[in-house]
Amino acid sequence: MADASSPPRAFNNCTACHAAEAGQYGVGPHLAGIVGRTAGGVEGANYSAALASSGIVWDEDTLVRYLVNPNAVVPGGSMPATGLDEAEARGVVDYLNTL
Ligand code: HEC
User: Domain Cytochrome c: where (predicted)?
Assistant: First the structure.
């Protein structure tokens, strides 16, 4: 079995734009501590108005839905589709939970 904190393969679809460590900036905000945080909470990240004003709190189910279809959860947001199916998104969210 894989180490609980090692990223699943599907996380490769994220790393072009997101870092897993706090304090690192890519095209998107870092993802450390994302589970349970309010959307748009990373200081200095370049968020769309749609996401920043969404009021979403990132619980696991909302994250899975967002990763499968960003535009369905944050209409007008700036994250493009990730290409993940629901099972892959679950695996990624399980990993995000360890960050
Ligand atoms: C092409 C670049 C890109 C890819 C690939 C990408 N994202 Fe994003 N992501 C963004 C951008 C840009 C935002 C900010 C969206 C906005 O402000 O509307 C974002 C926002 C997010 C947020 C909300 C963060 C917050 O602080 O509210 C999460 C969670 C997230 N992405 C997770 C992922 C995961 C997990 C993957 C891989 C499955 C992924 N993203 C793939 C660019 C990307």
Answer: 2-99
DSSP code per residue over the chain: ---TTSPPGGGGGTTTT--SSTT--SSS---TT-TTPBTT-STT----HHHHTS--B--HHHHHHHHH-HHHHSTT-SPPP----HHHHHHHHHHHTT-
Query: pTM for the complete prediction?
Result: 0.94
Q: Which residue has the tokens 């909470």?
A: 41
Secondary-structure class of domain 10-96 per CATH: mainly alpha
Tens of pLDDT, residues 29-63: 999 999 999 999 998 899 999 999 999 999 999 99
Pick from 13, 15, 18, 59 the residue to mutate for probing ligand 1's pocket: most ligand atoms within 8 Å of its CB: 18
Q: Where are the domains of the chain?
A: 10-96
